[in-house]
Write a structure and sequence with these properties.
This protein is of the alpha+beta class and 206 residues long. The protein has 3 domains: 51 residues, Wheat Germ Agglutinin (Isolectin 2), domain 1; 44 residues, Ribosomal Protein L24e, Chain: T (Roll), CATH 2.30.170; 66 residues, Wheat Germ Agglutinin (Isolectin 2), domain 1 (2-Layer Sandwich), CATH 3.30.60.130. It is elongated, with a radius of gyration of 41 Å. The termini are far apart.
């Protein structure tokens, strides 16, 4: 069976997969039927988008869909609420972070070094901007969600994280106290010689 390669998808297909075209040397369309069908659907979609309009609440005007950016969502692709010009204005007015602004890792490292100087760091170990806290047990900076609640503390959270509190309550993780061994009697102790002298004297007395 004669075959031909599609100029669009590059797949090798039989001649029945191509529509006739008298203008070409082999009298067949260089694009296969499936790719030709996709091209027609894309053209129709572009014509529909160019005719359909969408309302922009920022500039209060109806504009064609081509003036709106496409965003990917869980349900599929959709158009942004604002048009491209209004969205670019919003981005330009939005405050940008300064180049001297510290990252989260740098802030955590500074908190650890500062809190290690004190037994009770207090407010030094709390950062409400990033919702992080210093753990006095494991010496780490963790988010608020990793700490148990405690109403007696400053921000309603315990000073030790959940992992450290669970390890302290679990008897498997508790360190065993070293057993105190009684001192063993050696030949260097004075009462040892007294015992030997008594036994020898008892022998000679008999």
């Amino acid at each position: 069976m004669p075959t031909k390669i599609c100029s669009l998808c590059g797949e090798k297909k039989d001649t029945y997969s191509f529509n006739p075209d008298p203008t070409t040397p082999d009298s067949l369309n260089p694009v296969c039927k499936n790719c030709e069908h996709k091209q027609k659907l894309d053209q129709l979609a572009k014509q529909f988008i160019s005719t359909k309009k969408k309302y922009c609440p920022y500039c209060n005007t109806d504009q064609p869909l081509t003036n709106f950016t496409i965003k990917n969502t869980k349900s599929g692709q959709s158009y942004h609420t604002w048009c491209k010009t209004c969205y670019n204005k919003y981005i330009a007015l939005k405050p940008k972070p300064t180049p001297n602004q510290k990252s989260l890792t740098e802030i955590k490292a500074e908190m650890i070094t500062e809190c290690k100087k004190y037994k009770r760091p207090g407010l030094r170990g709390i950062n409400t901007e990033y919702n992080i806290r210093y753990c006095t047990s494991c010496k780490r900076v963790l988010p608020f969600t990793d700490f148990p609640k405690n109403k007696n503390k400053i921000n309603g959270l315990a000073s030790s994280c959940k992992e450290c509190t669970n390890n302290a309550q679990n008897p498997k993780h508790q360190t065993k106290k070293p057993t105190q061994h009684l001192p063993q009697t050696t030949t260097e102790e004075p009462h040892f010689f007294k015992r030997v002298f008594k036994t020898i004297s008892s022998i000679f007395s008999t």
